[in-house]
Design goal:
The complex is a heterotrimer.
Chain A: H1 3-10, H2 24-35, H3 40-50, H4 54-63, E1 75-80, H5 83-86, H6 90-101, E2 107-108, E3 114-119, E4 131-133, H7 144-156
Parallel strand pairs in A: 1-3
Antiparallel strand pairs in A: 1-4, 2-3
Helix pairs in contact in A: 1-2, 1-3, 2-3, 3-4, 6-7
Chain B: H1 19-24, H2 29-35, H3 39-49, H4 61-66, E1 76-82, H5 91-98, H6 100-114, E2 116-123, H7 128-143, E3 159-164, H8 174-181, E4 205-209, H9 210-214, H10 216-222, H11 224-228, E5 238-245, E6 251-256, H12 262-269, E7 279-283, E8 292-293, H13 303-308, E9 317-322, H14 327-341, H15 347-364, H16 371-383, H17 391-405, H18 407-415
Parallel strand pairs in B: 1-2, 1-4, 2-3, 5-9
Antiparallel strand pairs in B: 5-6, 7-8, 7-9
Helix pairs in contact in B: 2-6, 2-10, 3-6, 5-7, 14-15, 14-17, 15-16, 15-17, 16-17, 17-18
Chain C: E1 9-13, E2 16-20, H1 26-32, E3 57-60, E4 66-68, E5 79-81, H2 85-101, H3 116-124, E6 142-143, E7 148-150, H4 160-167, E8 175-177, E9 184-186, H5 200-204, E10 210-212, E11 225-230, E12 239-245, E13 248-254, H6 269-273, E14 288-291, E15 294-297, H7 300-312, E16 318-322, H8 328-340, E17 346-348, H9 357-360, E18 375-379, H10 383-386, H11 389-399, E19 403-408, E20 420-423, H12 433-440, E21 447-451, H13 452-457, H14 459-470, E22 476-480, H15 486-491, H16 499-504, E23 510-514, H17 524-533, E24 536-541, H18 546-550, E25 553-556, E26 565-568, E27 573-577, H19 590-600, H20 610-618, H21 629-632, E28 637-638, E29 658-663, H22 670-674, E30 686-689, H23 691-697, E31 704-709, E32 712-720, E33 729-732, E34 752-756
Parallel strand pairs in C: 1-5, 16-17, 16-23, 18-19, 18-21, 19-20, 21-22, 23-24, 24-25, 29-33, 30-32
Antiparallel strand pairs in C: 1-2, 3-4, 3-5, 6-7, 7-10, 8-9, 11-12, 12-13, 14-15, 14-25, 26-27, 27-28, 29-34, 30-33, 31-32, 31-34
Helix pairs in contact in C: 2-3, 7-19, 8-19, 8-20
The chains are: A alpha+beta, B alpha/beta, C alpha/beta.
């Protein structure tokens, strides 16, 4: 991911913001699409393309849950465990998914296919217990078998061309 | 009890995901009516409708809009808060992916009233699917000239920029949202100045929730008086409640204010509880409000009544727990939420939310002492009302009220050495 | 900025009627009447209040809940309560919450004993913890840099350091990461915090999260004494505070009560950490004489006695050469002694004055006058390297709305976002006069900073610039003076020429040098030859250097933070040095040695203290008229501007080849080299060329080049840098032992140099 690519992405939307600092968040999200997380080089490229310091860019990125400054798996699976989902079995679902992909609770599977993370309310309480794959539509309510099927289908898929976390 | 699909137009009409479909369902008439008024008259209509903010604060929308100075010499902005992240709340999600054009029309109406040429819709980062739907809807509007250089008439431009968050509940707080939109860490600002005077880029800004803005098209089409006549005088109109938790039909329900009670909502619309289960508690307005018990079930759903009952209407995200659940464990889980979401800027929230979670965690896991309850009560007073924004107040409210209303439960959990993991309700009616 | 010319507002604080300025925040209004409202995040020098820490919550009648006093401005009839139960509960609460995760490190924390968190807890907080919970942990300690240590567990997220980095130094390095109670201070991906002002974060930090690595575990507050003084590192004259233990300086910090007219409480990292030079290995500790026995150490009474005997000789012709950091008192006593000895030449080792008169006649400005400037133009020089804190003031002016332009041949740290870079051909600042005129057009509060060295090499440009500024309404000038002593000695009328010429004419028998070694500086070779012509050199000096070996009598003298005396800053501000360290046992203040000599000569001068010397000179020199030492106080006093001086014609650069652009990096000078604390940031002497020019000269890729001027030929490392102008050779001066400064002529005039590949050594060996 180069500063040039990011600049090209930003070019058509620059005029929509009176202060160009606003472009940092869209730039970070765009830069993250390439590898699914933000290595140092990607953040440096965002800094160059937006004209802000690398430290500032990293500071912004590290604030948000869906911008990853450490590597994550090919797919990020979020299981919401806030109250509504907890009341309907989110914790058990989380444990089951963890067992499926071979992590000890939250974490990245050994084969690098999945990162499992607890999430806070995903706005899908009517589908509790639910999970979300990257930023796809929240799926639920899920039995453990249904969750297994989702994971199985993801295993069969190739890597996405762009990562929308 | 009466339901009115004023905001949830898609529950009455098909095919609202295309502009033509939306117009066939009566869409865009609100904006048309607005454009025939002066902006001042539009503002007055907002005011007369009595519409109150639907994001949680319940502040009268028309009054908020009138705070924007007309002669600041700076551009005015409208920002739509689509950062829906309040636990138990998913009402805006359904507007975004089922009735997006009504939101767009509502944003346009508000923008016309305050003289805004470019509005922003800030969508929470996790709503990827909703983002895609909204993006397509905006593109269609632009292609049809509903947004663009002549949107409000020849030479009268209006457009909407979509902005995507990246996962932070605090960005639902209006000044934190503006900070995030400005490309910064989403931490709230000191108020005053308020966004109406110095908001986005220090310019006068009207910032409203999705549901609030989506309520505007029917209001402008059918008239402010039509709206203000619905429901109680101080709390007119319809409100969407998201019901979740231990109910058989979790979902969104748009009800007429004041004419529906909590009991109606939970036991009628949302299908009630499982056989053999008793109602234990509910958090009626999202989780950042005091919890209510069975004795409050006959409270009408409107701002004043819920406040009198000791809670708040808030976002309308009603989380229901039956007697299979443990109030202590639920409080602990909520404490975790607030700790995770605290932005860290101010001391009482940054340190207090962590402390609350640690104490409740000890109690749940069997390491609690009766003295912990007094410690909690002391902490509530040291956190609530002392912070830069209301997140901390939202953290305290459910736990403080739970301790007040269910003290026996807390004492029992402490004495019995913890709270066993309850059997979850799981997937029913899947 | 609050207006000062409006009627005061009356408010009530704790039942007491209080007058306050319009726009004042409650915290300040209360402080002015001795009511303390505790704060952490509030620091007006960092910008608008942010109300983050919540420590300053107070009750304001009529307002719901509690208000942050740091962000609530006074309003007529406001009634404030800072001592009610509710306020006390809030204060206790905030402190209790801060201490919930703050580690109990006091016994091992350098901040202990001078820690605002400790102090506030003692005054306003709980005596015991009620928390049973394990505290949050971070790996520690970490080095943010070799100079600054970071302890994330102690951090209370007060925002001060990150706001300094972002909004004052604008170095874009120190930021927050994560959020909530995982919030931590960090640099980009853990890289070291590099810059010229990083140490100010240590002063700002209200806890022991950011501490000085060189000061780590050195001393406890009850072992130390603090004293206010002035930094003698450059001509800005930052006010600072000395921390001494047992007569030795252990640490320097910004003043707790900053001098807003000079440095605003900020000091540069060189100023902060160069003091180990005072006790460097080459410091002269005892006087040395050369007699029939040879060179040997003696006591100071003996040395001064011997020197006095020499001066008593009838008809002896004595000259004085004053170096740096020579105080005004040193200069005055040299003049007095010279008068007693028949009025021989007295000169300072500095930049010659020719042609700078018109610039010096312009209306002057103090540092804080930049705050309200509409246009700032810097002509020549590089303040970021040579007068570092000036950069912070320029950045502040830009944030306040000033347009800034940097004119000159050197790339500067201000180029880019802060300032327009108007790059000139080396040696031809004059080319930019028209552009400068454009930038000044329409301004009414412009400030022009002009570099003494660069403008001295182009007197015609100096005259043109002076004309331009004089004709711009409201414009004022600040001289970027090359050395600490210059402005003060000029105020005494001491020129930069006269001694060398007289020596070469055979008219000097005895040369007394004060804190000067001309053999290692500009024209060094010529000076060395001249010194051999003099019968006797008596050197009053600080460190061992070639002049000590040339001197018959070498007497160690105190300097800088060791002595009492007066320095005049580049803005013409007379400020008081106060001694913070005892200095070597065998040393004395230079002015005191000169008085001692007068006693030995039988014509004793009356001064017994530096203060007396100052009071006496003030009655004699118009620049200091009407002042006494007491008047200088803690903040100094601007002195009357000197008279101008004639313009001078353009000067030809000496030598053939590329014009030499002299650069003095901030961490390159002698003091920085002597200080082990600055090992990590030390800059070495080298020659800089643009890659194009290096190619043209046939030295591309060489590690070293031979640099030759009519005055010296020196082998220097080569650094290729694309930011450099191709028509110049950039002489980056570092450690004086490299002798690179001898490439320059006496008086630091313009010179060109031939750059060649190094002569091959030992070919075919």
């Amino acid at each position: 991911m180069t500063a040039h690519e990011i600049s090209e992405f930003l070019a058509p939307i620059r005029h929509e913001f009176a202060d160009q600092r606003s472009l940092i968040l869209p730039a970070l999200r765009f830069a993250q699409e390439e590898q699914g997380w933000l290595p140092q080089g990607a953040m440096a490229a965002v800094a160059e393309a937006t004209g802000y310091s690398q430290a500032y860019v990293e500071s912004v990125a590290s604030f948000y849950d869906r911008l990853y400054t450490e590597p994550v798996g090919r797919r990020v699976i979020s299981v919401c465990t806030t109250l509504s989902c907890m009341l309907r079995g989110s914790d058990e679902l989380l444990a089951h998914v963890a067992a499926n992909i071979g992590t000890n609770g939250e974490g990245t599977s050994a084969d690098g296919m999945f990162t499992l993370q607890r999430a806070e309310c995903l706005g899908a309480c009517d589908r509790a217990p639910c999970l979300q794959v990257d930023s796809n539509d929240q799926q639920g309510p899920l039995t453990h078998d249904a969750a297994d099927a989702i994971i199985g289908a993801l295993r069969a898929d190739g890597a996405p061309t762009r990562y929308d976390r | 009890m009466p339901q009115l699909n004023s905001v949830y137009r898609h529950r009455e009409f098909q095919d609202l995901l295309t502009l033509t479909g939306y117009e066939r369902a009566g869409g865009w008439n609100g904006l048309k009516a607005t454009l025939e008024m002066t902006p001042d008259d539009a503002l007055y209509a907002f005011h007369r409708s009595g519409l109150r903010g639907r994001g949680g604060a319940g502040f009268p929308m028309g009054r908020k809009a009138s705070f924007l100075p007309v002669d600041s010499g700076r551009p005015t902005y409208v920002v739509c808060n689509a950062d829906e992240s309040e636990p138990g709340t998913f009402k805006d999600r359904e507007i975004l992916d089922k009735n997006p054009f009504q939101l767009i029309e509502g944003v346009a109406i508000a923008s016309y009233g305050v003289g805004c040429e470019r509005a922003y819709i800030y969508v929470r980062g996790e709503y990827g699917h909703q983002w895609d739907v909204l993006l397509r809807a905006i593109a269609e509007c632009r292609a049809a000239g509903r947004l663009g250089p002549d949107a409000f008439g020849p030479g009268a431009p209006f457009d909407i920029t979509l902005y995507r968050g990246a996962g932070a509940y605090i960005c639902g707080e209006e000044t934190a949202l503006l900070e995030s939109l400005e490309g910064k860490r989403g931490q709230p600002r000191l108020k005053p100045p308020y966004p109406a005077v110095a908001g986005l880029y220090d310019c006068p800004t009207l910032i409203n929730n999705v549901e609030t803005l989506a309520a505007l098209p029917p209001i402008m089409h059918r008239g402010a008086d039509w709206y203000s006549a619905i429901g109680p005088e101080k709390s007119p109109g319809t409100k969407i409640f998201s019901v979740s938790g231990h109910v058989l039909k979790p979902g969104n329900y748009e009800i007429v204010m004041g004419e529906t009670t909590l009991r109606d909502l939970i036991f009628d619309l949302a299908g009630g509880l499982r056989d053999g289960r008793e109602f234990k508690a509910c958090w009626p307005g999202g989780s950042s409000v005091p919890v209510l018990t069975a004795e409050h079930l006959d409270t009408p759903l409107d701002y004043e009544s819920l406040a009198s009952a000791g809670s708040f209407l808030g976002s309308g995200g009603c989380i229901v727990m039956d007697d299979s659940g443990c109030i202590v464990r639920a409080s602990w889980r909520l404490a975790h939420f607030y700790r995770h979401e605290s932005c860290g800027k101010c001391t009482p929230c940054r340190e207090g939310t962590g402390w609350l979670e640690k104490i409740l965690g000890r109690i749940v896991h069997g390491d609690g002492r009766l003295e912990d309850l007094a410690m909690l009560e002391s902490l509530f007073g040291r956190i609530s009302g002392r912070t830069l924004c209301a997140l901390a107040d939202g953290a305290v409210a459910p736990v403080q009220s739970a301790l007040e209303l269910f003290r026996d439960d807390f004492e029992r959990v402490i004495q019995q050495g913890g709270s066993p993991v309850p059997e979850p309700m799981g997937v029913i009616n899947a | 900025m609050p207006e000062h010319d409006e009627a005061p507002i009356i408010i009530t604080i704790n039942g007491q009627a209080v007058e306050a300025r319009k726009g004042a925040m409650l915290v300040d209004a209360a402080k002015a009447v001795g009511v303390e409202i505790p704060i952490f995040c509030y620091e007006p020098r960092l910008g608008k209040p942010i109300g983050a820490c919540r420590m300053c919550l107070v009750e304001v009648e009529g307002m719901r809940g509690l208000q942050t006093a740091c962000s609530t401005p006074v309003a007529p009839d406001m009634v404030v309560n800072t001592t009610s139960d509710q306020v006390k509960g809030a204060q206790d609460g905030v402190l209790e919450l801060l201490l919930a995760n703050h580690p109990l490190d006091c016994p091992v924390c350098d901040k202990g004993g001078e820690c605002p968190l400790q102090d506030r807890t003692f005054q306003f907080g709980p005596g015991e913890t009620r928390s049973l919970e394990p505290k949050n942990h971070f790996p520690k300690p970490l080095d943010l840099s070799p100079l600054v240590a970071l302890d994330r567990e102690r951090c209370i997220a007060c925002f001060r350091c990150v706001r300094f980095s972002e909004d004052v130094a604008e170095d874009g390095q120190l930021t927050f990461h994560e959020r909530g109670d995982h919030t931590e201070i960090a640099t980009f991906s853990g890289e070291p915090y590099e810059g010229r002002f990083t140490g100010n974060t240590i002063d700002l930090c209200p806890v022991g999260a950011l501490t000085s690595n060189p000061y780590r575990f050195v001393s406890r507050p009850w072992d130390i004494k603090n004293a206010p003084s002035i930094c003698a590192g450059c001509s800005v004259g930052c006010n600072l505070e000395i921390t001494a233990r047992d007569g030795e300086i252990k640490r320097l910090t910004g003043r707790p009560d900053p001098n807003m007219a000079v440095e605003e409480g900020w000091i540069c990292d060189r100023g902060r950490w160069a003091f180990p030079a005072l006790t460097a290995g080459d410091r002269l500790l005892m006087p040395e004489i050369v007699d029939q026995v040879g060179r040997r150490q003696v006591r100071i009474e003996r040395a001064v006695g011997d020197a006095g005997a020499i001066l008593r000789r009838s008809g002896v012709r004595v000259a004085f050469l004053l170096g740096t950091p020579v105080t005004v008192e040193d200069g005055f006593l040299a003049l007095e002694l010279s008068h007693l000895l028949g009025d021989g030449p007295v000169a300072r080792l500095g930049v010659a004055d020719d042609g700078l008169g018109p610039l010096r006649a312009l209306p002057g400005a103090q540092m804080d006058d930049m705050d309200g400037a509409d246009v700032i133009v810097v002509v020549g020089g590089d303040p970021s390297s040579q007068q570092p804190v000036t950069e912070l003031r320029i950045r502040k002016a830009r944030r306040n709305g000033a347009r800034v332009a940097m004119v000159g041949p050197r790339p500067t740290a201000l180029d880019g976002n802060t300032a327009e870079a108007l790059r000139t051909v080396p040696g031809r600042l004059g080319d930019a006069i028209d552009v400068v005129a454009e930038r000044l057009l329409g301004s009414s509060r412009a400030i022009v900073l002009w570099d003494e060295c660069d403008l001295a090499t182009e007197p015609d440009t100096a005259a043109a610039l002076a004309r331009l500024v004089a004709s711009t309404p409201g414009a004022r000038a600040i001289e970027l003076a090359a050395d600490v002593s210059g402005p003060g000695l000029r105020a005494l009328g001491i020129p930069a020429t006269g001694v060398l010429e007289q020596i070469e004419a055979g008219a000097v028998d005895v040369l007394i040098t004060v804190k000067a070694d001309p053999t290692t500086g500009p024209g060094g070779a010529r000076w060395a030859a001249a010194l051999n012509q003099v019968n006797t050199v008596i050197a009053l000096c600080t460190h061992r250097s070639p002049i000590v070996d040339l001197a018959a009598i070498a007497i160690p003298v105190l300097y800088g933070l060791e002595e009492a005396g007066t320095l005049v800053s580049m803005t013409g501000r007379a400020q008081r040095l106060r001694p913070g360290a005892a200095g070597p046992e065998g040393a004395a203040a230079a002015w005191e040695v000169l008085v001692g000599l007068s006693h030995r000569m039988g014509q004793p001068l009356p001064d017994r203290t530096a203060a007396q010397a100052f009071d006496r000179l003030a009655t004699r020199f118009p620049a200091f008229a009407g002042l006494t030492c007491t008047d200088l106080g803690l903040l100094g006093v601007p002195i009357a501007a000197g008279t101008g001086g004639p313009a001078a014609p353009a000067r030809q650069a000496e030598g053939e080849g590329l014009p030499l652009v002299v650069c003095t990096p901030v961490f390159g000078d002698a003091t920085a080299h002597r200080s082990d604390a600055l090992d990590c940031v030390r800059e070495e002497t080298h020659l800089g060329l643009s890659p194009t020019e290096a190619g043209r000269l046939g030295v591309s890729g060489s590690t070293h080049v031979q640099v030759t001027t009519p005055f010296a030929s020196v082998l220097l490392p080569l650094v290729e840098d694309h930011r450099l102008h191709e028509a110049g050779a950039y002489l980056v001066l570092g450690d004086p032992t490299s002798m690179a400064a001898t490439l320059l002529p006496v008086g630091r005039g313009a010179v060109c140099a031939a750059i060649t590949a190094p002569v091959a050594q030992g070919v075919g060996a």
